Structures are given as C-alpha cells and as structure tokens.
C-alpha cells in the first residue's frame, strides 16, 4: 500500500526539482516563457513582436510581480478563519462521508451547516461534500485533498502533462466578451487579456488584428491529472449543488473550497459551476488552501478575467502557508502559472492573529515565490492556516 508518509518525500523532491528546473533553464532571446502573464494592475507581459522585441506602451511589462504585499483585510481574514479552513479541514474527517456533521472542533465551528450530499472513494473518485449554510445563505461545495493510501490518486497528483479544457470549463470562459487587441480600453478585463490576445495574434494568426475569447479557450491548458480526477466526480457534485439551488431560491452564493489536490479540483469546480448555473447570476466564490498550479498561463489569465468581469460575479483566492512546497507545483518552465489573488501566511505557526498578506499580481516574488527551494517544508502544507491544521489529525469524529 502506498501511504502518505511514503509519497510525501517523492512530492517534495518533485517540487524542488521542478523549481530548480524553472530557475536554471535559459530561454532564447525573444522567446517568452508563457503566452499570458498579467501581474500587478496594468503590469502585463508584452506580446513578442516578429523581431523578438516587446511592444511598448505607457504600462510597464513583466512576467512576475514584485509589488509589496499588503496586510490582509479583516473581511478576508474572517472568511478564511471561519469558513475556508473549517470546511477544508472537515473534508479530511470521516463523518461527513457518512452523512454526519460530527467531526469535532472543525464541524463545531459551523454548527448550523446542513450536510446534504457527499461522495467519492478517495481513489478514482475524489471525495467531496455539499450542503447548505443557513447563517450565510450559501451553498457549500468542498473537496478533500489527496488520499495517497489509494493508488489511483497518484497519477492524478503527479501528472505534469496538459489537457485541453473540458467543455463545461470552456463554457464558463466563453461568457467573457471577445476583445480586440487593436482597440485600447480602460476595462480591467481588457487590460488583463490584452497581452495574451496580442501574443496569440502574433504567434498563431499573425494576419489578424484581433483574437477572440474562443482563441484563448482553444489555447488554454490544464493539468491532465487534475482534470481527469475532477471529471470523475464533478457531475455528481454539480447535481448536488443544483438541488440546493432549487431548494433555496434565496441563496446568496456558492462557496467552493478545497485543500491540496482538492484545491486544484475546486478551482475547476468553481469555474464550471459559474458556467452551469442557469437563470440569475448567483455569486460563486472559490477559496482554497495549499493549491498547486492548475494550468498554463492562458488558463490562469482566463480565471483572472472571469473574476474581473463584474457581470460574472466570480471571486477567487488561494492561501499559501510559509514554506509549503506544494504551491510551487507544477513548473513554470513548461508554462504552468498561478492566477492572481494569492494570500500568503509567512509565519510557521500561523495563528488567527498572525501576519497575513494579500499579494498582487501573479507569482509575486515577495510572497510564496520568495521562498528558496532548500527551505521547503512538507509539514507546512497542513498549516496551520491562521490557527487551523488542515489534516486528519484535526478530526475527532464521533
């Protein structure tokens, strides 16, 4: 049997190796590491021109952000401490997958939560639960992290290869308006996408003056293992969420969360649910911890654009803890990239009152990306996240 103890060193080694590969690989002059890289505000990587130089504008261009992080807002801190960490932690307990909300302090922290659906076996079908949170009038959809006692989980977690977007994910992104690279705009969504559109226009269709959202979707890629794991259980999760929407027409939002592998699947859940929900556009919020990179830079940019388009009512953030190596998987050298909105916890023993920072842009060099590979700690993957350990040891199921 493959255990979490035996697989963690392998994952740690892969994380270190991928980061070393990223930092030591040279790129030919004029060749970009990714097609789609927006960072702080108007700081986006310029599209390469045919001569290999970069286009100029009043904005500065960069692949990564080096802006100073700012203290986390009280609202986000409360959300993470009272919802994200508690649901993510409870997903490692056994009682929710027996139809019971009795897992000790994690469940007690959300006493009125009504568990309505659960599924998965931890192997081929990754575990999840869905329910109704009366106090916030939200539908909750939470994913468990990887259970490496199931051999079937290993290919999901260790697959470096890419896959095209699943139709349900592509559908959500198709709602983003097509953008014309030759037409300046003050729209925040336009600012996010312009660099990618120009890059795609010059690389894939040089004669075109614009590139549609469909072109972006066609060149977006996600981790094949993550999407394979997600596709096994998403239909059932979606059905459970839709049942709660029907039961609670007064619902104010859908809250999607997960940790580790579960965080990666939750990103896909959130995007797909945004495209699946019919009728009124109910807010979808994705709040994850210990998330590895999910897709290439085009995918990361589409997630950012979905969040910046106010009409879509989509929000996303990810929490990185101290020296957790998992947030550095998979390698940027082959195009993987995080979306924006990192929240970094720089303290090893992070408590509810510890430092917490919001990091602008992508791959912010003053946040988790500042951690040297030789100081990665596997123990940091479980937290504590503002006082909560997200692991089975926090469970006291009754």
TrEMBL record:
Low complexity compositional bias, start-end: 46-67
Q: Pfam families from the xrefs?
A: Lipase_3
Per its UniProt record, what Gene3D superfamilies does this chain match? alpha/beta hydrolase (3.40.50.1820)
Instruction: Identify the stretch(es) annotated as Disordered.
Output: 46-68
Which segments does the entry list as coiled coil?
A: none
Q: Per the UniProt entry, what is one GO biological process?
A: lipid metabolic process
Extract the signal peptide range: 1-26
Segments passing through the bilayer = none
Ranges where the Fungal lipase-type domain occurs:
213-332
Which keywords has UniProt assigned to this entry?
A: Hydrolase, Signal
One Gene Ontology molecular-function label? hydrolase activity
Under PANTHER family, the record lists: FUNGAL LIPASE-LIKE DOMAIN-CONTAINING PROTEIN-RELATED (PTHR46640:SF1), TRIACYLGLYCEROL LIPASE, PUTATIVE (AFU_ORTHOLOGUE AFUA_6G06510)-RELATED (PTHR46640)
Please state what the protein is called. Answer: Fungal lipase-type domain-containing protein
